[in-house]
Structure formats: C-alpha cells, structure tokens
Specification:
About 45% of the residues lie in helices and about 15% in strands. It is built from 14 helices and twelve strands. Helix 6 (about 165-175) links the parallel strand 8 and strand 9.
Length: about 325
Amino acid sequence: MTRVALYLQDSHDLRDGLDYVRYAEEKGFEAVWQAESRLVRDAIVPMAAYAAVTERIKVGSGVINNWTRNIGLLAATFLTLDDLAPNRIICGIGAWWDPLARNVGIERRKPLTAMRETVTVLRRLLNMERVTFHGEFVHVDSIELDVVHGRREPRHVPIMIGATGDQMMELTGEIADGAVLNYCVPPEYNDRALELLEKGARKAGRTLDDLDRPQLIVCSVDPDHDKAIETTKMLLCQYLAQQPHIAKASGVADEVVHEIQSILGWPATREQIDRAKHLVPDELVHRITASGTPEEARAKVQEYVKRGCTCPILYSAGGNVKLLIDTFAS
C-alpha cells in the first residue's frame, strides 16, 4: 500500500487525537479523516485542530451531511480550513441517515437532488465565483466568498461523497471528485460500487480512473487475536443497531439486528454494549473488518485495495491507536 489514512471519531480524548495525527504524519500517512455521525463530536473543530498542529498530512471530513449547514456557511467553513492548511483540506459529504436526521427535524426527501445542488454550488463558491442558483433545496442570489484580507484565488478542496445506495453511488461518479467508500462491508461490496461509479463517470465524460476511492475500514489490531475480535464486536453491535443503512450494506440478518436493537438504547451505555456484543458473529467480524494480529489486519486491508480502494482509511475500533499506525506505516 502506497497510500494510507487514519480515521478518528469520538472514542478518545480530543487532545489525544492531536497526538495521533502528528504521529500518523510522522509515519507517512497521507490523510486523517474526522467522523461526524452521531450527536457526539462534530468534524470541523477537530479538523481545524489537526490542521493547526501538522504540516503535510491532508485533513478530511468523513463525512459531514448536506442538510444542516447553509450552503454559504458550508463554503465559508471550507474556505477557512483551507486558509489554515492550504491545499490540504478534503470535503467529505454524505446524505446523512434516518432515524437520526428525522429525530432532529430533517426530512431527507429527494436526497439525490439535494446532493447535486449542494455539490454544484459549493464547488462554484470555492472556485471564487459569484453565484445565483435557484434549485429545489439551494437558493442563492448573487453571492460569493467575499474575501477582502487573504487569498482570492480559487481553492482546491476535493469534494468526496460518502455514498451508500446505488443511485447516490452513480451520482458520485458523475459529479464528485471521488467517493468515500463505506465501512462494515465485505471487500466484494466494492465490485458493484465501482460499476456504479464508472457508470456515473461516463455521464460526465470521465473514467473510473478520474475518481479517487478512499475507503473506511474498521480495524482492530492486537498481538492477541481474540482480544482484537472482542474489541471490534463492541463497535459493530452499536453500528448495526443505530445505523440501518450500514446493517443493510453489511448483509447482516434482520433477526440479528433486531435482537441487538432490543438491548441497546440510544445513546447506548457501556453495559448494554457488553450485553449485546456476543450477538455479533465472529464470521461477520472477519468478513467486514480488518481485525486480528497486525499481519491479519494488513492482509485483510489488502483485499479492499485489490477490489478498487485507492487509499484505506483505517478506523481504529479501540485499543492501541499508535500500534495501528505502526502496523500500516510506510
């Protein structure tokens, strides 16, 4: 693997995250991606912190949603991040998911139209254009990023869509700089994803090679194989219960998901997770994550690379993050 990235969420102290990112940069990692999924830790504040304490590593949102930030604010946010770390910022954006979106009052109707409008206008604003656009979701009248003090030139901020469904994957191939491929899926999931990306790319006169395809991969590394598997089960049971789109993409049996959901509340407690984790089969852990000894984890990640992943984004399920970084250091 010539490219590798780190994924951080909320299982660590935020200041420890700064140490992890600096260490990843030292070990040759290309990028760090900050999650924004549950109502826990937003992506933008950590991204700014990571950018401020590093010199080379790229910093991406993995992924924010296109519903909760006004398009002007969204563009200004990524302009600001690019001011902090020029040419190192990546905008990873997705269509969010229910029931979380619904529970905070967001109706995710026509997600393809909403995403197309967001990406179209965001790209034009970051290109420092004056934009008038009246769509179904995005309405702007003669606005631009009105930089007075600072760089006026267009900003190079790749826009990557975190797509799950077939139609969103195809749209990604058409309008985005690339896809943030999903985690908690087997390597063969990528075969269909690449077909859809290529189909979308052809609509825009492009090829699959024009699209970057980093992929989130849940990774638990420990010299003790069984301990690594146990750590991953704690993470998986929470994802399967709370994020139906992940469970569907994983191919997990409905009865397993329903039983886990019957135990876990929202937010889940550590006690509930400990009660539910045994319901996650070992076979599932091996099929959809890179968990085990360092050698086992490297071999599994390589399977995703062989199926079209251009840059593994390693999501530490827990345990020793620096050991994970060392395992994949260039």
